[in-house]
Specification:
Elements (H helix, E strand, L loop, with lengths): L9 E4 L4 E5 L10 E3 L7 E11 L2 E11 L5 E11 L5 E4 L4 E4 L11 E3 L7 E10 L4 E10 L5 E11 L5 E2 L5 E5 L11 E2 L5 E10 L6 E10 L4 E11 L8
Length: 244
């Protein structure tokens, strides 16, 4: 009677044959258990090989169990080490709202960190957007790691005008000819940021030759800030009739 062993060991437990791991993570230990029909102690041999690929590494590793009769079984696994995580923003500029007369704050580069790469490619860009009142400066910083993962930091600076126009000194009581009433503007005004628009409303009262106007002026800037002034205008007629 010849007693022999021609049966390979069996795999009783093993992980997945292919796994994906982030570049900053710890590669899990390859744990494989075997059993054999005859031997309680098996010879275990492990080997691994690393292949550098685009943006990472591939590790091929295998465990071989051999019994005393030379029968063997091998389990192999491929570990793909990649970087799929975008950089994180460590610090970025806060949004600001400033007056049109203020100095535009200088751009300060945002700061980023990455789980795998110490050096990042950072590109800054600045654009201006016209608004209904003022304008917006938009600054962006794009941080990209060696695997092309990107993160954006943005700062918005809103340049606006919240100050009302300033009305210059003027004469409170005036007298004008009757043919100058419609074209007469008795005040001047300036604004800290731009041009002004002057409108008025008249209320006719008795007095004088042709009456007295209570003229209320409204001065507006491009952002809707207003200032008002009131003036009394006595309407005169000092010219005699013309003989045709």
């Amino acid at each position: 009677i010849v007693v022999g062993d021609n049966t390979d060991p069996e795999i009783t437990s093993a992980p997945a044959v292919e796994i994906w791991v982030e570049c900053d993570a710890i590669v899990p230990t390859l744990e494989v258990t075997f059993s054999d029909n005859c031997d309680t102690e098996l010879t275990i041999q492990s080997i691994s090989a690393i292949v550098i690929v685009d943006c990472g590494n591939d590790i091929t590793r295998s465990v071989t169990a051999t019994d005393e009769c030379g029968n063997s079984t091998t389990f192999s696994q491929i570990v793909h080490i990649r970087d799929t995580t975008s950089p994180t923003i460590v610090w970025s500029n806060a949004d600001q709202t400033i007056e049109c007369t203020d100095e535009i704050p200088a751009a300060i580069e945002a700061q980023f960190a990455d789980n795998c790469d110490e050096e990042l490619s950072i590109v800054a860009n600045e654009s201006t957007i016209e608004l209904e009142c003022g304008y917006q400066i938009q600054r962006t910083w794009t941080a990209r790691d060696n695997c092309g993962n990107a993160t954006f930091a943005t700062q918005n600076i809103f340049v606006t005008d919240t100050q009302a126009p300033v009305i210059g000194s003027y004469t409170y009581y005036v007298g004008i000819e009757c043919d100058q009433v419609d074209s007469y503007i008795g005040i001047t005004a300036t604004d800290n940021c731009g041009d002004v628009t002057i409108t008025y409303i008249d209320e006719l009262n008795s007095g004088g030759c042709l009456g007295t106007l209570v003229r209320t002026y409204t001065v507006s800037d491009d952002c809707g800030n207003t200032a008002t002034a009131e003036q009394y205008i006595s309407i005169h007629d000092t010219h005699g009739p013309l003989i045709n």
